[in-house]
Amino acid sequence: MSTNTDRTIDVEAIRRDFPVLERKIYDRPLVYLDNAATSQKPQCVIDAVSRYYAETNSNVHRGVHRLSMDATSAYEAAREKLQRFLNARSTKEIVWTRGTTESINLVAQSLGRSKVQAGDEVLISQMEHHSNIVPWQLLCEERGATLKVIPMSEQGDLVLDAYEEMLSDRTKIVAVAHVSNALGTLNPVEHIIERAHARGVPVLLDGAQATPHMKVDVQALNCDFYTVSGHKMFGPTGIGALYGKEALLDAMPPWHGGGDMIKSVSFDGTVFNDLPYKFEAGTPNIAGAIGMGVAVDYLEQVGLDAAAAWEAELLEYGTALLNGMDGVRIFGTAAHKAAVISFEVRGIHPHDLGTILDREGVAIRAGHHCAQPVMEFYGVAATARASMAFYNTKSELDALAAAIEKAQDLFA
Ligand code: PLP
Hints:
By secondary structure, the chain is an alpha/beta fold.
C-alpha cells in the first residue's frame, strides 16, 4: 500500500472501509465517539485476521512444515512493519505484547526489579492511565521505593518546573503518557526525555493514545521505551508492542518464562533466546500481530499527517460547539491536544448522559477513564468523553450536541 503524503483525506471514502460505521443503533446511524477506548477496524484488518485462520493457521518459530513457515513469515513481516512505523533501528527492539498494559508491566517487572532499590524513586505524572500507575506502585511497594507524581495545571498541562525539581539521583525511571486518554493533552515529551537523560534516567512513553493520531519516531524522540496498543490504532485487540532500545532490552532479565524465549533448557539451567524473543514466552497472538501489521499499512495509506490535520479540525469544531452550550464544562484545555473532549453537563451524571446519548445512536465513554487521579484532581467522580478518529465528521459532532440538548431537556 502506498503512503498518503497529502494533507487532506477523503472522509467519506475512509468511512466505507469500516463496516461497523454502517450500523444503526436504535434505528439511528451509529455515531462512534469512543475511539480512545478502542477504535473501529477497517475491512482489510478484519480480512487479514480471518484469512490467517482460514489459510495459514499454525504455530510460529517451531514448525518445519509449510503452514508454520508461512505463519512465521507473516508474523515477522508484521514486526518489520511496526519497526518501520515507529522508526526503531531494528526488529530486535520490537517485542510483541498484549498491549500497552503488558508492555509497561514488562518494563516495571524486568528493568524495574533489577534496577530499583529501597530509597529509589519512580516518576510518573498526575494524568496517567491506571496501567501506567499500578505496575509502578507494585514495583515500589516490593522494592521499598517511592512513586513520585509530576503535577498538572488546571488546563491539564504537566508542571515542568516541578518535574525538573523532582528529578534527582534517586530517580530510576520516568514513565509518562505521550497523550493523555482522559484529557487529550499532548505532553512535551521531548523536553521530559532531555531532562531525564541529562541525569542518566531512562524514559518510558505510554504511546497508547498517540500512535492512532500522529507520526511517532522513537529515534527522533530518543525515548528508551515506547508502548503501543493495536486496538487503539485500528488493529485487533489483545496485541500490542513494547519498543525498547536494544542495549537496554539486552541488559534486562526475562520476565515471563516458557517456550520460545529460550535457546536451551535443562534442569541445570536455561539459556535465554536473543532479542526480541527473550521477552516473548509462549504461543503469541499470531493473528493479532498480522492484523496489526495490516492496520499499520492502512494508517500509512490514510496518511497520519492528513489524519492529524482532520482531527485537529474536528477537535476545534467540537470544542467550540460544546463550549457554546449552556451548562457544559470541558476538562482539559491544553494548547496541544489530541482529539479528545472530556466534559460534564450540569445536573446530569455522566453515566445518565451516556445512556441517553446511546439511545440517540451516539457512543461516548462515561466514567473515570481508568484515570481516577485525574477525576480526583478536578473533584469529579466521572466525566463524559468524546474521542475522535479520522473517520469522524462534523455532522457527527452536531449529532452529539443535539443529543446533549435532548438530555438537557429531559433533565430540565
Ligand atoms: N495508557 C493509555 C493512555 C490508555 O488510554 C490505555 C487504554 O485506554 C492504556 C494505557 C491501556 O492500554 P491497553 O488496555 O491496550 O493495554
